[in-house]
Amino acid sequence: MNNSKKGFIPVMLTPFNNDGSIDYKTLTALTELYLKSGVTGLFANCLSSEMFELSEAERLQVTKHVVDVVAGQVPIVATGTFEGTIQQQADFTNKIYGTGIDAVILISGLLAKENDSDEVFVNNVHQLLDLTPGVPTGFYECPVPYKRVLSASQLEDFVNTGRVIYHKDTSLDINQIKAKLSVVKNPEFGLYDAYMVHAIESLKAGSAGLSCIQGNFFPELIVWICDNYNDASKADELAAVQQFLVTNMGVMHDVYPIVAKYTLQQRGLSISNFTRREVGDFTPVVKNAVDQLQKEYDILQNELSF
């Protein structure tokens, strides 16, 4: 999933009603908010979506809902591998591809156990690809259930099958990213970086874009980085934006995704703070930190003249 233009693919939230059911009306509004901010794609049914807390039917329904709202405006990817045998993971991969998405994301930490060798992992990936003929795929180095980071040679092998067009990198290592980019030559493939600390350097090195949780607070800010990362006249502003995001990384990760939902509330989206995942308490201290974050963003926004 590569474009000539660098792009932002947000990891989507799932809005819930206060009784814990999925709020599809707000999911529509949230999807439209992402699109209005200028994203070049969407990652539905991901960790930020609380995918492990959704039932199989809900994973399919949420993804199909996003596909229907987007109506082809941007590409959509969604996770297709969960606990189970490779055959079971392949079966769901085929099902979720049937919702109309552009690629199915494979969770690297679910394609082999943590103590399994690289050989087992690689063999399992090829087995899954064999069981899902014609389905475009990608990888996400998800931290749950554990993080298995792909090596450059593994990614090269997988992309060379012609079936892998997307990679969400969470290695947190710019040298690993450069190594991966140096060996993958398929123009249809795109690497999207999740780590804001070296976001601009990653884009300059050849990443197709960014896919980070910060976009669930200020999506237009991540879009602005992707649009302007290589503009020398904006070097000072780019440094200030990246520093703002890095400085506030702890605030954005604390009891996430509740803090992201609260921020979107403050920005006018009718979304509940409810989360099915146990992430901790949204205490007054956490709330005050997020309120301060919003104030600092408003100042930055004025300086950048969004």
Automatic annotation (TrEMBL):
Keywords tagged on the record: Lyase
Annotated protein name in UniProt: Dihydrodipicolinate synthase family protein
Presence of the UniProt keyword Transport in the record: no
Ribosomal protein is among the record's keywords: no
Gene behind this protein: dapA
Alphabetical list of SUPFAM superfamilies matching this protein: Aldolase
InterPro entries: Aldolase_TIM, DapA-like
Any single Pfam family the record assigns to this protein: DHDPS
Family in the record: Belongs to the DapA family.
